[in-house]
Amino acid sequence: MHGANRVAVVLALLALAVFGAAVHRYFHRYFDAGAAGADYSSYLRGPKGTRALYEALEGLPQGSVSRNVRPLDRLPEGDDTTLLIVGVEPWLISDADVRFLTRFAASGGRVVIAVPESLDLLSGDDKDSGDDAAKKGDGDSEKDGEKAEKKAEEKAEEKAEEKPEKKNQACDPKKGACAACCDSCESLWGAAFIEGESKGVKEARAVDAVKDALPEALPWRGDARIETGDEHWRTVCTAGGAPVVAERGLGAGSVVLCSDSYLFSNEALAGDRQTRLLSWFLGGARRVIFEESHLGVFESEGVMSLALQYGLGPLLAVFAAVFALFAWRSLTSLDPGPPRDASVREAAGRGSGEALTGLLHRAVPPASLLGLCVREWAATEPPAPSASPGAGRRLEAETVAAAAGPDRVSAYNRICAILKERRER
Fold this sequence. Notes:
Elements: H1 3-32, H2 51-58, E1 64-68, E2 81-86, H3 95-106, E3 110-114, H4 124-140, H5 142-161, H6 165-169, E4 191-195, E5 202-206, E6 217-220, E7 224-228, E8 233-239, E9 242-250, E10 253-258, H7 266-271, H8 275-282, E11 287-291, H9 303-309, H10 313-331, H11 352-363, H12 366-380, H13 389-404, H14 408-424
Parallel strand pairs: 1-11, 2-3, 2-11, 3-10
Antiparallel strand pairs: 4-7, 5-6, 5-8, 8-9, 9-10
């Protein structure tokens, strides 16, 4: 490979490497800046994010904080661990999630579930049916659509208030066996979030049993209230006379329900920080996990993620280096070769026409060239049907004259004229 080509290849590889590094840095800064993420995500730096709380806990000298972007059943045991599930709609919590969270709490963990301030109490199926009914009502009349939507909301509220007695009797807080009472995502361990009577900001107060650990009064933005169906639940805070924070023991751990996620947001920590209440939510655990999978943040489990998980990053880097050397070896030789003599000039290559000319110069005398061409032509060219015998004799005479005389160019032109005359007849 010539030196110019080598330089071009090296520059192209460098440009590709710089472009890849720039793209990687852009996305790293984009996500690190918290520009992407759902509401109440610990990746989001906006007002509705929880990154400020995550970074505050990360800066503490003791304990650890992490994010969970995998399915809940992949989490370790809950010993001395608080799991924060902030900004989740209750109907998104499946029965399988409830069963795992029960085991997590029973093993010594603390599960904190906080729903958004404006809670959507419709489940996925009920929401779809309500939307379809509303669309149908728009086609017929607005009143019919409003009635259908109201009926769907009443159905969802009745479903949330159902508490089968047999399943409630199966709950045993000492053993942590409460999954049996959670047949729907709107009924969590015998409790449910239902629509509150008052909207907007109101005042919440701690009950007498926890007034020493919590602020006496604080602003509350959550619209929902918590309805507890058995004596195992303990009301922690009330707003407008209705429970808004409730706690229940499960085995060696506990579960906390909260009807307001605003307390954990970046906006709340900046303007209305409730440090004592947040500390009570965390429960003094050495490890805090921010649950992100319910917000749509998942880790894709591909070959690369598994390789990085098991520490195969250096091995992949070695393979990449070997591949780069192989590509370089294919483009140019690593052996410089013997030194070149500047006095030796390289012979230029010749084409097929030049090669035939040189062969004729060496093998055929100039005087015999024209006769040889005529004989080869006569051997390969069939005689024309209309050709006269006189034309053939003239052609032979011109060939003999060209061989005997010095003016072979004029003889060649006369032969071409005879051949043209034959073709025209």
